[in-house]
Amino acid sequence: MDEPIRDSRTLVIQLRDRIAELIRQDGLRPGDKLPTEAQLTQRFHISRPALREALKLLEQDDIIYVEHGRGRFVSAMSAVQVDRPITVFESVTDMARHYGYKPVNKVLSICEENPPALVAEKLRLEADARVIRIERLRLHEDEPILYCIDYVPRAIIPTKLYDIDWSGSLLNLLEQYRNRPRMSAATVSSVMLPDEAVHRHDLRDFGPALLIAETCFNAAGEPVNYALDYHRGSHFTFSLVRK
């Protein structure tokens, strides 16, 4: 069956998810062989380079494994199903859509500033370096579900701030400047929103949040974004696999 991919999420991410779903739908078990690249490109109407990137992601997640000369096979890890593995790296918007939300990004503030000490450390900045600070709120049907602060080295985006549409995907914006994040290191904690954000943006009903503090790296391993994402605790849960 042909299943062309047409939604708005990052192509490789959606393709990874669709192949993982194919494994479940077709009842493939650990040790079963995955369809060939030719079969998958025909099924999803996708280019072979994009397919190979998606397969690499599945291999990194231990959903499949490769036997050179024989093909790709379903791994034992595929039998371990979790609702939302916290190890998935994707944009906040893509993550919210995975939960069934239709997020609208509202830009609260945008400025250039000297970085706080922690941010400078996370982004490995020189003493005189500046950062762009982006403060945004994600809404679903006018209800706040995510409060986010992002720091990006100013040197990466030299364009005038007012010439940029900050309401879209930051990952896609960084890709325009050849610095798309490919991986991250993160910590998760249960917190309340900062008092300043609560009072300034009328977020008194937001409640407890799951804070993911994340340093994102480009393909060369250079930090290009430090993000503080406050997930509304009443709307998000994350799962993990231990191995």
Can you describe what's shown?
With 243 residues, the chain is α+β, with helices and mostly antiparallel strands. Helices cover 26% and strands 28% of the residues. The strands form 2 sheets. A 6-stranded antiparallel sheet has the order 3-4-5-8-7-6, with no helix packed on it. Strands 1-2 form a two-stranded antiparallel sheet. Helix 1 (11-25) packs across helix 3. The protein is globular. The chain starts with 10 loop residues before the first helix and ends in an 11-residue tail after the last strand. The relative contact order is 0.13. The model is unreliable at 5-9 (pLDDT under 50).
Overall geometry comes to globular
Point out poorly predicted stretches.
5-9
* End-to-end distance: 35 Å
What is the gyration radius calculated from CA atoms?
A: 20 Å
Percentage of β-strand residues: 25-35%
Largest sheet: 6 strands, antiparallel
Number of helices: 7
Order of helices and strands: HHHEEHEHEEHEHEE
Overall SS class:
alpha+beta
Helix content: 25-40%
State the total count of DSSP E strands.
Answer: 8
Mean pLDDT across the residues is 88
Strand order of the largest sheet: 3-4-5-8-7-6
SSE blueprint and pairings:
Elements (H helix, E strand, L loop, with lengths): L10 H15 L11 H8 L3 H13 L3 E4 L3 E4 L17 H7 L5 E10 L3 H6 L8 E10 L2 E11 L16 H7 L6 E9 L3 H7 L7 E9 L5 E10 L11
Antiparallel strand pairs: 1-2, 3-4, 4-5, 5-8, 6-7, 7-8
Helix pairs in contact: 1-3
Features:
243 residues; 7 helices; 26% helix; alpha+beta; 6-stranded antiparallel β-sheet
